[in-house]
Amino acid sequence: MTFTYFDQPARWIGVSDQETRCDLCHQQKPCFDATGFFGEDELAFICPDCLSNGRLYERDSYTCQGDVAELKRQLKSLHPALSKAELDDLADQKTLELEKTTPHLVTWQDWEWPCADGEYARFIGYGSRPFYTKLVGNSDARMLFEKSIYYTLAEESDAEELWEDVPRKLIVDYADSSKYSTLFYVFKSLHSDQIITLWDSD
Fold first, then answer.
1. Which of 27, 44, 64 is a domain's end point?
2. Residue 41: CB partners within 8 Å, gap ≥ 6?
3. Is 81 within a domain?
4. Range of 39's domain?
5. What are the tens digits of pLDDT across the range 4-62?
6. What's the pLDDT at 1?
7. 93 domain-assigned
8. Torsion angle of C-alpha atoms 70, 120, 151, 78, degrees rounded to 10
9. Could you tell me which residues are beta bridge partners of residue 122?
């Protein structure tokens, strides 16, 4: 089960324990919960195959919302020779791929999916002190965390204070994440080592 913008979805959001009828292919198989999707078409379950194969392109349903404005800004910086129409088209293609083929990340608040290096970033897990330490190697995990807070949250976030809320134990899966009232969502650029963190609370 491989998705461009979501690493190990079976671990981080889970699939149904029992085989369930996919609303798109109508086969009985392990499925993702689709009740949290956006759009006019309501779905209950979607199987990983239908999601990754782009079956949502057929429906008014999408799993997340991308930070289109920031993506366009980055693309313009990376490709100054492209016209506005070309940049808009490129951003729209990337956004549709994100929103139509990415598993639904369960969060308390709605926020836009972050981007880095002219592309949407990949969700890689829930933030914890051991996880940031693993990502940064021998460097300062706290410094990585503070630098990684996404620009939409940076101004309203006290990074030093937030660090105190970062779990001290590794969050190993979705069930484990339910123990915490504040969660940190960690993303990684598809094209570099850049790490991005978003956070919310219940």
1. 64
2. 59, 60, 61
3. no
4. 9-64
5. 999 999 999 988 878 899 999 999 999 999 999 999 999 999 999 999 999 999 999 99
6. 67
7. no
8. -50
9. 188
